Amino acid sequence: MKKSPTLAFLCIKSIKFQLLQGDNPIPDLYELPSELLDALIAHLPALALQNFQTHMPFKCWDDYESGDDCLISGRKRARYDVLGNSWKVLFKLRWPELIDRVKLPADWQQLYWEKHLQNCVDEAAEVAMRPTFSGRISSINVSDKILRYICHEEHLNCQKCVCTELSFHFQTFGPYLRCLRLLNVLCVTETSELLRTSNLQTLVLRWIRSEKHVEPLCKLLIQSRETLTSVEFIHCKLSSSFLGAICASLHEKDIHTNGIQRFCIKTSSIDIDPLAAPSAFISFLKSVRSLHTLHFCDSHLDRHIGRMVFSTLLDFSSDISSLDLSENNISGWLSTFSRRVVGSLSSGKSLQSLCKLNLRGNELNRYDAENLANALLHMPGLKSLDLSGNPIEDGGIRSLISYFTKNPDSPLTDLNLENCELSCCGVIEFLDTLSTLEKPLKFLSVADNALGSEVSEAMVNFLTVSIESLNISGIGLGPGGFLELSRKLGKGLKKLLSINISKNRGGLETARFLSKLIPLAPKLVSVDASYNLMPPESLLMLCDSVRSAKGALNRIDMTGNSFISHETDHTSLLGEFQHNGEPIFVIPFSSASHVPYDDEP
User: Fold this and answer.
1) Predicted model pTM
2) For residue 27, how many other CB atoms are within 10 A of its CB?
3) Which domains does the chain have, with CATH numbers?
């Protein structure tokens, strides 16, 4: 026999339905005992909870709030958490995969409606892209799949349900919107009207390619200029006039705003004449003092545009802190810093705030590296430099050696030289130089360079300085290289946090090296030893080492080695080694992980 509903259940159901209408507050609802109100709040869907808060009398806000605040304690702290926890529960119920990514303290109500609106926008874009669509964006119906999260089934079938159209959601929840992703199909004038109540701080735009997209976008940028701090373009085609109009919309001379802090163009095409670049773009680069991050990654830049951008930033001593010009073809972009002309440059020009420079995959050669070494003198605060994927060869690395020799107190701490066509001789010379610096590097990658086992001794000497993270993946160490590393390794590695030795075909010698390394590195957190052709007995060797070391190690990636067979079950052994409930040893239990890594061309 079906159990009859309780009186409390029926009352809550009735109040819930009234709150979903949202027209007027329910008389005396907020005069109920706190225990009953708490029980009611716990059963409200998102729209009802929103209306509950909207109509809440001012005097009740001392007891109820929707965020996290460590300054409130005692009884009021408990009252304060009720709404915040309810929004957190609703967020987790709807997007469980995102809950661990939220930074605390968090306003769960704001995050909920922001994510909700993004879901609505994504769905509306799918509708608007259909060839048969000819209506208004604001009139697009939000699907039941989304609505059932904020209402309930009975309300969806009610004639008084007002939340079916997209316009309702932006009118009601727009003020909670801070970040938004927009497809080109939604870059229309009507979108600006929908977003009029929002407080946009971050805007990501995709597939902007024609004037019909740019004009409405500029209107939206002007409308949001007071709050907008980050704009990102992905898969866009930006002509000179488009870029000029966008920059003019983001920055108006002599008008004070919070200012754009981050401007990024990724996997796109920029088509401008560097000799006749739009004045608004140049003005944007030189005048927006709030601009800290500038990315033109994979944007079809050539050396002329690259030189123009860098020269403009340098000439006006920009406050930029992160510059990304990666995945372009800009070889020759720093020719003005060649040895012949560098002396004529004004010593007063510098990028004092620049901390991170990414030049990955730009077809830079040894001459570009030489010019870069000269240009580094104008970046006195640079801490991170990525030159990976550039064929600078040993001539290029010797230019870096010259830079470090002349600047032993350089602030540079992170250097990526992965896949730079370096040889063993060049890297040995480079490592020997780094070992003598007053401020040694914290991170270095020379991965995917054919160095061979001869680099082992210099590598050990460098390891014992103060390196925190080292990537020597795929450098061809082989068993002989790991054997030499083990023989030379004797001093403690007190600062080493992570090391990547994957794809070196070291076999059993890889395990022997790690068994000696782990006890000498008390702060070591992560090891990548994947694809090294290690035999099954290596696992027991490493387990003994980890067991005796008792350090901070929480991850050893053993993917692609020969540990697993149908006859062997390591479950009980690996269960001994856990960190925060996760296994320390990463060993995929599938036949695919048995296949040796093939690094042959």
Assistant:
1) 0.90
2) 7
3) 8-57+79-164 (no CATH), 178-251+258-285 (no CATH), 292-337+350-421 (3.80.10.10), 440-591 (3.80.10.10)
> Residue 124's closest CA among 56, 195, 36, 58?
195
CA angle 381, 388, 482 (to 5 degrees): 110
What's the first-to-final CA gap in the chain, in angstroms? 72
**CB of 471 closer than 8 Å to CB of 445:** yes
Does the pLDDT at position 68 exceed 50? Answer: no
Pairing assessment for the beta strands 322-324 and 262-266 based on DSSP bridges: unpaired
**Which SS3 state, helix, strand or coil, does residue 527 take?**
strand
**Cβ atoms within 10 Å, residue 506:** 28
Dihedral angle over CA of 450, 451, 453, 458, nearest 10: -160
Give the angle subtended at the CA of 139 by the CAs of 135 and 145, to the nearest 5°: 115
Please check whether residue 444 is in contact with residue 434, taking contact to mean a CB–CB distance below 8 angstroms: yes
pLDDT digits (tens, 9 = 90+) for 532-576: 999 988 988 999 999 888 778 999 999 998 765 444 556 776 778
- Locate 492 and state its tokens: 């403690």
Output the pLDDT for position 346: 47
| β-strand pairing of 230-234 with 179-183 | unpaired
Question: Rounded distance, CA 527 to CA 500, Å?
Answer: 6
Place of tokens 């320390």: 584
Alpha-helical segments (H) within 439-597: 456-463, 478-488, 508-520, 537-549, 571-575
Quick one: which of 542, 596, 537, 543 has its CA closest to 568? Answer: 537
